[in-house]
Write a structure and sequence with these properties.
Blueprint: H1 8-11, H2 19-46, H3 51-61, E1 67-68, H4 69-76, H5 80-92, E2 96-101, E3 104-112, H6 114-134, H7 141-165
Helix pairs in contact: 2-6, 3-6
Length: 166
């Protein structure tokens, strides 16, 4: 799918949103909120973790060597202070350990403990089942590819704007 060229009325900040633009944005927000609520319910049934804590486990679970705290914060799209607090909570639960990098004593790496790996695997299975039932079952292959293209484009545009403002 080619990158679209937004009509002038979509790039003018003073122009009111069209009914279709409002419906698309509301649909995106509502579907995200409903998915988060359902994920939170399922997470509460299967653990004592919050959604943010599971997100941390999910990112660390995909990196056997762990992640530097700033990389983890970037992947989780959370503030570094908020992430540090959540990692501390996970550390107290015995699910995450922090250590310094071999080549840089100032760099702190977070990684899953054995208990963290077990919890991650348990919740990964539950989360995958939830996503297939509540999200992917409503999309055919073409819609999934289109949605992926659209959401990635939106993220790239927002991230580029954030980098310019920093």
């Amino acid at each position: 799918m080619a990158e679209p060229h937004a009509p002038a009325e979509r790039t003018a900040s003073a122009a009111p949103l069209t009914a279709e633009e409002i419906a698309a944005f509301r649909g995106l927000l509502k579907s995200g909120a409903l998915l988060r609520r359902e994920a939170g319910r399922v997470l509460a049934e299967n653990s004592d973790l919050t959604g943010v804590q599971y997100e941390i486990l999910r990112h660390l679970g995909s990196e056997s060597a762990g992640l530097r705290m700033h990389e983890l914060a970037d992947r989780c799209v959370h503030s570094r202070s908020g992430l540090t607090y959540q990692v501390t909570q996970l550390e107290r639960m015995g699910l995450v350990a922090r250590c310094t990098a071999d080549n840089n004593e100032r760099a702190v790496i977070a990684k899953l403990t054995e208990s963290g790996e077990e919890m991650h695997e348990k919740l990964r299975r539950v989360h995958t089942e939830l996503l297939r039932e509540t999200f992917f079952s409503h999309l055919n292959d073409e819609e999934l590819r289109t949605l992926t293209t659209i959401t990635q484009r939106i993220c790239r545009g927002i991230e580029a704007g954030l980098e310019e403002s920093n």
